[in-house]
Design brief:
- The complex is a heterodimer.
- By secondary structure, chain A is α/β, with parallel strands linked by helices.
- Chain A has three domains: 119 residues, no CATH class; 255 residues, NagB/RpiA/CoA transferase-like (Rossmann fold); 67 residues, no CATH class.
- Helices cover 56% and strands 10% of the residues of chain A.
- In chain A, helix 2 packs antiparallel against helix 12, helix 9 crosses helix 10 and helix 16 runs parallel beside helix 20.
- Chain A is elongated and about 100 Å long.
- In chain A, 45% of the residues are buried.
- In chain B, helix 2 packs across helix 12 and helix 5 runs antiparallel to helix 6.
- In chain B, the strands form two sheets. Chain B has a four-stranded parallel beta sheet with strand order 2-1-3-4, with helices on both faces. A four-stranded parallel beta sheet of chain B has the order 6-5-7-8, with helices on both faces.
- Chain B is α/β, with parallel strands linked by helices.
- Classes of the chains: A alpha/beta, B alpha/beta.
- At the A-B interface, helix 1, helix 2, helix 15, helix 19 and helix 20 of A face helix 1, helix 2, helix 3, helix 4 and helix 8 of B.
Chain lengths: 464, 240
């Protein structure tokens, strides 16, 4: 089935799932309350903070090549290897080659949406590698055989009871609803992955040009184990994640923590400048950083869209989006869901298959309101629609014709007046033929238009 | 003051009584009204559906009709936002660019106009309702309209104002979105209406005919005990 139709079917199914709706509303309600409070305790002026962050990112985007080269020089000087991957396939192949060279049978991962973007888990499994997700949320969806539901909270759609049942059924753990015990089950399950894995794969929240470092923030410590225990550490990171220096972290770490989870600061923040150095007792022997383009420089080349590369993947726009809250993360069928996903996916993966995403929005603008780097997401969704119709010609012939007829009629009052009785009759006769949901969405026209009633109104006035 | 009425297509064709209510209220407040029946639509339905050239061809008529108007008032937040914020883009490098850009300073949404030109104590009347305000997304985010804009309602006798917690939440209308993605739009309406019911409202007040149509359909389909009114309708009845 074509993706746009499949999307609508998945969406419709989710809207009928009342349990899902209430679960997500509850989870996001809690998030919103904490985050809104945190914005005020964390920053003297939230609006100024996000404006400053936007300016810093725009400056980064204006001199991206220079900063990335500086990053490469500094981190390679300390023994890391940097690979520039133009496509997802190149990034995957680099990792697969590494797996083959190291004869790795087990890979441990910490949460990374960029690895989802390149379909890494599937590629590794296909090559016969055992892949272990070490982030608790990621582990839950992996055990359930699902994809992440949300870019920050991948198992948002599962409550405590769901996780208990899952661990009981899939991991053979005793049935318990105690959160601490559930965490211990996951920990037990993961411990041997860290020591048996040949390669640890992580993402990075930021990379620093001046220091030649990668920065990773997390809440469980699994990221640290993933990059420190195995002999090889691979970092896959989008090339837009670069910051000029460590100084900018003073703004960006609290910004991400606030918008992502409502925390003052995430529990573990690591800055890594290379593999194990001579004389150091531990750390990986090799460190590889893959800088992923995969369509990003094309976005950068479009003045209208380039500032979407400010995104720090905090997930705030997903939580704020009433459509996301209604249809859930899986309906999108993309690694990046919600408003940010609907802005970038057609560019990264092609309008032909993904043009419907920007249309699946009421353009309410809640996403732009909460974005910590001031991306006007709902306008970008609208520009995406313009591009889909005008440049990519994705509109169905029926819609194109309908809009042309509509515009012809709407250009002149005389035409509306002429067509009106027929349209009114037409909708009355055709309405019962439409499917139920859409039938309700066709407005029944009033007996007389305002234009006509106004004439009567004016006549009455002059009469009195 | 002479006011030119901006009657959106949805009001013209589906809810003319909203337009008439707004006109009556403005007349009672002493404004001289002008309505040019050549007006049709601002072009927003096509613009938001991605069909830019169709939108422009319809919007050209709007600009021609209103280019001489001094003050333009319409009963819709999203149509006002279309003219004020998106005509610049729609008419970029177009012969009408200057005229279209000029409109943005003269077009007002109804409650904006009242706030700016009518002293709050001049709006008096009586209306019995437990009322919550559904500020439309475009009115709130594109025009910056807040509860403050309709604070004059608190002077209407019998009206119990029930504040809703948090930011305004979308009702799911979104123009053709509610047709193309009907199941999503309906569930969004349900979520939004539940908020008003839980807050104890019997009346939902809005300033956008699009939201009103969408919400009325949902209320009707589910038989909910909630009356959906446009601000103009409420004032018209209260001031009668």
């Amino acid at each position: 089935m074509q993706e746009p139709r499949a999307f609508l079917q998945r969406a419709a199914a989710k809207t009928r799932d009342e349990e899902h709706r209430l679960k997500i509303l509850k989870a996001i309600d809690t998030y919103t309350r904490v985050v809104e409070q945190r914005k005020h305790t964390q920053f003297r002026d939230w609006r100024q903070a996000r404006q400053l962050a936007a300016r810093i990112k725009d400056d980064v985007l204006a001199r991206l090549p220079e900063l990335l080269q500086q990053f490469e020089e500094r981190i390679t000087a300390r023994g890391a290897r940097v690979f520039w991957a133009e496509t997802a396939a190149e990034a995957r192949q680099y990792i697969l080659d590494l797996v083959a060279r190291r004869q790795a049978r087990v890979v441990v991962k910490s949460k990374s949406m960029t690895t989802e973007e390149i379909g890494l888990n599937e590629a590794l499994q296909h090559a016969g590698v055992d892949v272990w997700e070490s982030d608790l949320g990621e582990l839950i969806v992996q055990v359930a055989g699902e994809k992440p539901y949300h870019i920050v909270t991948p198992a948002m759609h599962k409550n405590r009871e769901d996780v208990a049942r899952l661990f009981h059924e899939k991991l053979g753990a005793p049935l318990t609803q105690d959160v601490e015990q559930l965490t211990m089950i996951a920990r037990e399950h993961l411990r041997h992955a860290y020591v048996s894995a040949e390669i640890g794969i992580t993402g990075a929240n930021f990379i620093l040009a001046e220091e030649g470092a990668i920065v990773m923030t997390e809440n469980e410590g699994n990221g640290r184990l993933t990059m420190a225990c195995p002999p090889v550490h691979v970092v896959l990171v989008g090339l837009e994640k670069v910051l000029p220096s460590m100084r900018e972290l003073a703004l960006f770490l609290p910004l991400l923590a606030t918008s992502g989870t409502g925390q003052q600061i995430t529990c573990y923040n690591s800055i890594v400048r290379g593999p194990r150095q001579p004389g150091e007792p531990d750390g990986p022997e090799e460190m590889h950083i893959i800088l992923l383009d995969n369509g990003r420089t094309e976005l950068l080349a479009q003045p209208e869209f380039q500032h979407v590369l400010r995104c720090i993947r905090c997930g705030a726009c997903l939580n704020a989006c009433p459509v996301y809250r209604t249809i859930g993360g899986h309906t999108y069928n993309t690694p990046y869901q919600g408003p940010i996903g609907s802005v970038i996916t057609p560019h990264l993966r092609g309008f032909r298959q993904w043009y419907h995403l920007p249309f699946a929005s009421s353009l309410c603008g809640a996403c732009s309101d909460v974005c910590p780097v001031n991306i006007d997401l709902h306008h970008l969704l609208l520009w995406n629609r313009h591009r889909a119709v005008e440049r990519e010609h994705t509109a169905a012939p029926g819609w194109r014709l309908a809009m042309k007829l509509w515009a012809w009629g709407m250009r002149r009052r005389k035409r509306i007046a002429l067509l009106r009785p027929w349209l009114r009759l037409g909708t009355k006769l055709l309405l019962p033929l439409l499917p139920g949901a859409q039938r309700r969405r066709v407005p029944s026209m009033a007996e007389h238009s305002f234009a006509r009633l106004w004439r009567d109104h004016e006549r009455q006035k002059s009469h009195f | 003051m002479r006011v030119s009425l901006f009657i959106p297509c949805l009001v013209d064709q589906v809810y003319p009584e909203i337009g008439l209510s707004m006109a009556r209220v403005l007349e009672r407040l002493g404004f001289e009204l002008h309505y040019d029946p050549r007006q049709t639509c601002c072009g927003q339905p096509a613009f938001n559906a991605g069909h830019v050239s169709e939108a422009r061809s319809v919007a050209e008529n709007f600009v021609e009709v209103f280019r001489e108007a001094r003050v333009i008032v319409g009963p819709s937040g999203s149509c006002t936002a279309m003219v004020r914020h998106f005509y610049g883009r729609l008419f970029a490098r177009h012969p009408l660019a200057a005229a279209a850009g000029d409109l943005s300073r003269r077009v007002y949404e109804f409650s904006e106009f009242l706030k700016q030109y009518v002293p709050a104590d001049r709006i008096r009347g009586a209306f019995s309702a437990k009322m919550g305000f559904h500020n439309s997304c475009h009115s709130y985010r594109e025009l910056g309209i807040t509860d403050e804009h309709v604070a004059f309602l608190q002077h209407i006798r019998g009206l119990e104002w029930i504040p809703l917690p948090g930011e305004p939440v979308c009702c799911g209308f979104g123009g053709l979105f509610s047709f193309k993605f009907a199941p999503i739009a309906e569930t969004m309406a349900k979520t939004r209406l539940d908020m008003f019911l839980e807050a104890g409202c019997d009346t939902l007040l809005s300033n956008d005919p699009g939201c009103i149509m969408h919400l009325r359909q949902e209320v009707q389909a589910r038989g909910l005990p909630l009356r959906i009114l446009h601000l103009a309708e409420l004032l018209d009845r209260a001031m009668e």
